Batch of 2 targets.
Target 1
Amino acid sequence: MRILTHDQLHRTAPAIFAQEPDAAVSERYGFVPTINVVDALQAEGWYPVRAQQTNVRAPERQATTRHMIRFRQDPDRQVAVGDSVTELVLTNSHDRTAAFQLDLGLFRLVCLNGMVTPVGDVGGVRVRHGCHVVDEILEGSIQLSHQVPRIAEGVEAFQSTLINQSEARLFAEAALSLRYGDDWQQASPVQPGALLEARRTEDANGSLWSVFNRTQENLFKGGLRGRAASGRRTRTRAINSVTEDVRLNRALWTLTERFAELKGVDLAA
């Protein structure tokens, strides 16, 4: 595990170190620099290991745009969930586009690709900007940590649930709909089968967990050969947007839970 220093965080996502919000925010906005929350989580044993921020064209927005930091505990405290380890995923902005949001995540070691798992009915912990942000985030981190056993049970259920090729294709079609919208057949440059291609032998099986991971990795890493609506040859783009990263990760996890339930798995047990 490589812990990111302040310098590394600043190079990757300078908005973490904003000293004031965007000029357009209300006077009632309670400004707390994201780095204060990062340092508080690190003091509690959650270390920043990955960071990114949304690319914006206007230079003045670079310091306040939406950003994301992923945290992991030291190896002696890490909780393994199948072939993954648990993470906390913090997102925020200082330009009125997002409150502080803390989610439970999984980092799959075999493909080095993070996923975000919804927790409960509302999913994660959302904290409005204000003077108590740090305390509320720390409290939220404890609440989310308590949900790890439930997530682990879900992963075990996905690993033991087999689906046939027709069901896998339906999963991929639903994933393309989540990515490109209801008109994905026109908007997507690739067909469902492309999402089901295994990039490694470990994923070349018929479990729901494997289908989920193949689909997620192919969507997020991009590079799939296809054709645009004009007929031009193209490749799918990797997902680099903070907003889309969290949104699509959460949606894919929920989709996987629904498929498991349709196969008769009781995830509430």
Note: The longest strand covers residues 84-92.
Target 2
Amino acid sequence: MKGDFKRAFEYSKKENQAYKEANEIIQKTEIAELTARYDAEKKDEAIQSLQTNNELSDKLILQQRWTFSISIALLALLGFFLFNSYKQKLFKAQHDKLLLENKQLLLEQKNRQNQLNPHFIYNSIANLQGLISTNQKQEANQYLITLTRVIRDMLELNRKDFIPLEKEIRSLQNYVNLQQMRFSHSFDFKVESVDLDLDNILIPPMLIQPFVENAIEHGLMNLDRKGCLQVKFYQNEATLHIEITDNGKGATEESVKSFEKESLSHVITQERIELLYGNDTKTAGLKTFPNFRADGSGYKVEIYIPLTLFFD
């Protein structure tokens, strides 16, 4: 209005500069506020994300702890089950072993009673008394020596599960010698072993004697001819075969009642074989053949067991 355009222009420039500076300050302030707000939102998001991750981590840790605890519990239960199962199997094995040992002891007791029976002792003593009363001192002395050997064999050999075949044959010969003296040598006795190593082959003790006694008592006694008793041992592959044969009366109707003891011997021997070798009849067993000779006389018993060697 005064016409001072120069100063008016300068003030106008200053006003524009001030406005410009103020506007820049406002923009910077707004940008700073937006930046601060953005950073705060990012921090909040980061914090929220961290909280979420922490919660997930806590859940995962808790889940892992539960999984670990359940796994430990399952392993403990499995271990207890396995231990209990093993313990039961061990107890069962011990129980079965005790039952087997008890059965074996009972069977051995039956076997000894069957072999060393009062009837045999009574007859032997009566026969010895007869020799003494008839003043047959030498025969009585020999009879007593043989009887002592027989009783000693029965008592000593039965304590073992297996003995060499040579001892079994020697014990058998002692017993038959005693019976031959008792029956005035009314029968012959023969043992045959076909190329066998008698010292190294093992056999259950007193396995054959009950059948030899049956052959003498029920087959050869009071025979109207010379009796013959034979025991044969032979090997067939991995099996030891034993044959006891006689030429006696065989299984007649009159002798059926007297075969009661033979049946007992058969049962006890069969139980011994099953106890030692199992129930497989192809591996071990016992067979009888009454009246096997052509004229209908005689009796045959066949025993077969696995061939057991001393060095096995």
Note: The longest strand covers residues 227-236.
